[in-house]
Amino acid sequence: MESQINCQILPSLLSSFVDTLVDFSVSGGLFLPPEPNPNSDLITTQNAKNPKYPTCLAPLQTVFPQPTRLIAIGDLHGDLFKAKQALRLAGLIDPNDRWSGGSSTVVQVGDILDRGGDEIKLLYFFEKLKREAAKVGGTVITMNGNHEIMNVDGDFRYVTPNGLKEFENWAMWQHVGNFMKKMCGGLDGNVVIDDPFDGMPKEFRGIKPELLNGVRARMAALRPNGLISKRFLSKNQTVVVVGESVFVHGGLLPKHVVYGLERVNEEVRDWIHGLKSKVANQLVRGRHSIVWLRNFSNELAKDCDCSTLEHVLETIPGVKRMIMGHTIQEHGINGVCSNRAIRIDVGMSRGCNNGLPEVLEINDKSEVKILTSNPLYWKEYEASLSANKKDRLGSLIPGQRAKQVEVNA
Fold this sequence. Notes:
CATH class of the largest domain: Alpha Beta
Number of strands: 16
Structural class: alpha/beta
Distance between the termini: 54 Å
Number of domains: 2
Strand content: 5-15%
Mean pLDDT: 87
Number of helices: 12
Order of helices and strands: HEEEEHEHEHHHHEEHHHHEEEEEEHEE
Strand order of the largest sheet: 3-7-8-9-12-11-15
């Protein structure tokens, strides 16, 4: 048709414009800066039968050197407001929400999904911070928690109505973007996103009609090889070592270390990316898996399996402590097993315990302290710091005061 716009000469420009518009609309108004290393996860092997689909991706980095400043952030559960509070508490973002942490390294230990309505916005926000930090020598690491795995598995027990609405809005903008691209005759079909609902059932048994579109959109986005899971979650580590600390959402057992930390990351990543049809249950499902384990986060120190923890740490070269989320600590970040297990989930999301933000800070000498917005802790913090200064861990609230908080769906 003569009236149809011919975009053969500008396919890349058009596609980029539409993608930016869609990203801006679903992220709460963010413009993602260019990726500093756009080829960092390039395919290392191509599928000869279908070059569009890889058979192998570049390895995820599992071990990082000790940075000058290391910040650990616990579970965020769909609460962008509280996430920004935690980041500002650590001096990592400025009043305009831009990265201000310089060469710092940040580890967020998983559970961005569920219990809140800002899940997609959080994924985009951390992606923005990753790119901004990389430009100035900083590093932002995001990890898989049990709720990321549950959603990839299609387990939506902890999803909120606002969470469904956010994904329904995301799906609408995917359709808008596709429609805009298809308006241009001669546009390369490879730049048009496939229908995000391709292969999705029209109905789900037991789902209320008013929730159906949100459930379908969420499953389409987060299933293995889904647009959101592949773009964001497949880049997450499941276990990571930074300096003398190993980070994990739930915990590690000796069998996980024997399995291989790099292998864990790559197999979980490949499953989320859609390259593998399944992933071992011992890694991501069940109470003894990496993302569900609570052996080192029980409410009382006497109930924590310190001997197993010691064995695990001894088998990971150079590691002295394990840092985990998953189990809400009512009295804030704390350590058990002589501070070899540090629990950092303070339930800060308003969908959980609405706890006051706290983060863990580790300096280049591997000295650990808590940064808290709770004024009630300051006197205790100062007294504890003086009493244990020689151990460099005095800022950790004694583990005997820790209390696990149960949060229902």
